[in-house]
Amino acid sequence: MSTGLIILLIVIAAVVVVGAATLVVRSRGRHGGSLKRRFGPEYERVLALHDGDTKAAERELAERVERHGELRERPLDGAERQRYADRWTAVQEHFVESPREAVAEADRLLAELAAVRGYPDGGRYEEQLAALSVHHPEHVDGYRQVHRAARTGAGDGAGGSGAATEELRSALLGARALFEELTSAESGRHRAPAGAERTAPPAANRSHARSHTSWALHRSRPKES
């Protein structure tokens, strides 16, 4: 084999290797961008947990999509949505007298509701949370916060500090956003890309949203002197 032919083969091999490497890098870039768009704030949280290691964070998120991406939520009928709405209202009312117990009730209610919608049951909290993060990435952290608050037991109506009670209130408000998505009558609402505009909910859902919002504003408004 002539020297010229050997050099030509080496050049061709080098071009093939460089081309393959370029395709891999581009593929990873597209994959990472897709995960970032899909998970939104959850992407940033996982990235922080991995100390900025993009590959490790995206590997974890990709595994979640692989395990739970095909999950289809079981729809709730009108009566079920109303029962859950009534139970959430009771939780909010209970918060006035016993914030810690109300937060624990909210944690249990979300776990039950998620299981009814087809997610892993609440006894497998981490797996349930991972599945929810795939389909409700914008609001899953609210569930995480209320679960943590329920486990730490910070504050209580009579003996807890005001700061602790506000922490519990914040956790409950964060969890409410996920609750409203899980009880929404809008099919596929949770699948909208992060940051995308959503259409206004039906009138019945708007009335529930107004009642929740009025509670939040009333409880967070400072007392007048």
List keywords for this structure.
225 residues; mainly alpha; 2 domains; disordered C terminus
How would a crystallographer describe the biggest sheet? none
Rounded mean pLDDT score: 79
Q: Which of globular, elongated, flat, extended, rod-shaped describes the shape?
A: elongated
Helix and strand content put the structural class at mainly alpha
Report Rg.
Answer: 24 Å
SSE order, one letter for each helix or strand:
HHHHHHHHH
Distinct helical segment count: 9
- How many domains? The number is 2
Uncertain stretches: 24-30, 155-159, 187-225
Helicity level: over 70%
Total count of strands: 0
The end-to-end distance, rounded to whole angstroms, is 97 Å
Q: How much of the sequence is in beta strands?
A: under 5%
Q: Any overview of this molecule?
A:
- The protein has 225 residues and is mostly helical.
- It has two domains: 9-68, no CATH class; 78-220, no CATH class.
- 72% of the residues lie in helices and 0% in strands.
- It is built from nine helices and no strands.
- The protein has helices at 3-39, 41-49, 54-68, 78-97, 99-116, 125-135, 140-152, 162-182, 203-220.
- The longest helix has 37 residues, at 3-39.
- The radius of gyration is 24 Å and the shape is elongated.
- It starts with a helix and ends in a 5-residue tail after the last helix.
- Residues 184-225 are annotated as: Disordered.
- The chain crosses the membrane at residues 6-25.
- Keywords: Membrane, Transmembrane, Transmembrane helix.
- This is Secreted protein.
